[in-house]
Specification:
Length: 370
């Protein structure tokens, strides 16, 4: 069934006034079958028109029909939310946990950008270009919690997402990876609005982002791992048959508005390692389930390989394929491990809102959202 032939599905957005919430609105306002039906924010904004209470920061105007919508509190019994086929959460982690659980308990389907349920053994942690097969745990999640319909799906940390897509291409082509070292150069939009003080970030690099390194090191193994035969448990790349990848991450904040860069070195489990030509081809030929299902947000290329020696660059490459792909460049031998390269992701699109939307589109194709 084509996207245009699908029936419309009403959707809600939690944290609609924030950075990720605004990007949800921008992307969903032109979606072929997801229709924005309810907007949720803090009690300070509830009861007011969205256009009045939002400091809109995107380079396209607020869609007129959205600007006139009345913001609701983030409660499942608030007007509009109970009618939604799916609710997208752009909430901050300090409030997301209880709110998302309340929506799930009310038998609503939540696709979350927050970190709160990423480690939950019942919740899939999905990068849509890598592991939508993990959605198979949803029936177990619902059964365990005694829910007829409600469940939570999370997407990954934005830098993890930019890393695991090229790693997945390498694993698919050449088998297990042994060691990954990554240093990230993360944009200020990743800190939300108003983000990092100008006195801290201008003319500077901040060599620490609280909690980010641990997220990358742990999430990578859950995403690249699998499910057991009963679809009830993640192997986390840490059992005897699938050894954990050793991941070492250093995260930094740099004066870039949008676009997280990663400088990556990889060692393969097999020896000898594949040639640079084979690795380059594996990146270029990588295809994923989102593309095979032809969901609306899937990019025509999951990985765009750049041949120029000074690419990818955030300002030049973050908008490729509407920010839904990962750019890779400078693929070359590593004298310590096996191969090193640079990757780039649009942290507020594929690294956040686009991933949640694409995850939900895949769930629609799999019959998990009707």
């Amino acid at each position: 069934m084509s996207s245009s032939e699908r029936k419309q599905i009403k959707v809600g957005i939690l944290g609609a006034t924030g950075t990720v919430g605004q990007r949800f609105i921008q992307l969903l306002s032109t979606h072929p079958y997801f229709v924005i039906h309810a907007l949720g924010a803090s009690s300070r904004s509830a009861g007011q028109r969205y256009g009045k209470v939002t400091k809109w920061k995107l380079n396209t105007p607020i869609p007129k029909e959205i600007g006139n919508m009345v913001v609701q509190e983030c409660k499942p019994d608030a007007e509009g939310f109970k009618d939604c086929g799916v609710v997208f959460s752009g909430l901050d982690a300090d409030v997301a946990g209880e709110i998302e659980e309340a929506f799930r308990s009310a038998n609503l389907i939540v696709f979350s950008n927050a970190k709160n349920y990423r480690r939950d053994p019942l919740c899939p942690l999905i990068v849509p270009l890598v592991n939508p097969s993990h959605l198979s745990i949803i029936p177990h999640q619902k059964k365990t919690l005694g829910l007829e319909k409600g469940y939570i799906v999370t997407n990954a940390n934005c830098s993890t997402t930019g890393l695991v897509v090229p790693l997945a291409a390498l694993e698919k082509a050449f088998g297990p990876l042994q060691t990954v070292m990554v240093t990230t150069l993360q944009a200020i939009s990743g800190a939300g609005y108003p983000g990092v003080s100008s006195l801290d970030i201008l003319d500077n690099v901040v060599p620490h982002i609280g909690g980010e390194e641990e997220k990358i090191e742990w999430e990578t193994n859950k995403i690249l791992g699998g499910l057991n035969s009963d679809n009830t448990q993640f192997d986390l790349h840490s059992n005897e048959s699938v050894k954990a990848i050793n991941v070492s991450a250093t995260t930094t904040r740099v004066p870039v508005i949008d676009g997280h860069t990663g400088v990556v070195s990889v060692k393969f489990s097999k020896s000898p390692a594949p040639s640079m030509e084979e690795i380059d081809r594996a990146f270029r030929e990588f295809r994923c389930e989102a593309q095979e299902l032809n969901v609306p947000s899937a990019p025509p290329q999951a990985i765009v390989v750049h041949d120029a020696p000074d690419r990818p660059q955030p300002r030049l490459d973050r908008d490729l394929h509407n920010g839904a792909c990962v750019s890779v460049g400078r693929v070359r031998p590593c004298p310590v491990l096996d191969v090193k390269f640079v990757c780039l992701i649009d942290n507020v699109r594929l690294g956040a809102a686009t991933s949640s939307i694409m995850n939900a589109e895949i769930a629609v194709e799999k019959g998990l959202i009707v």
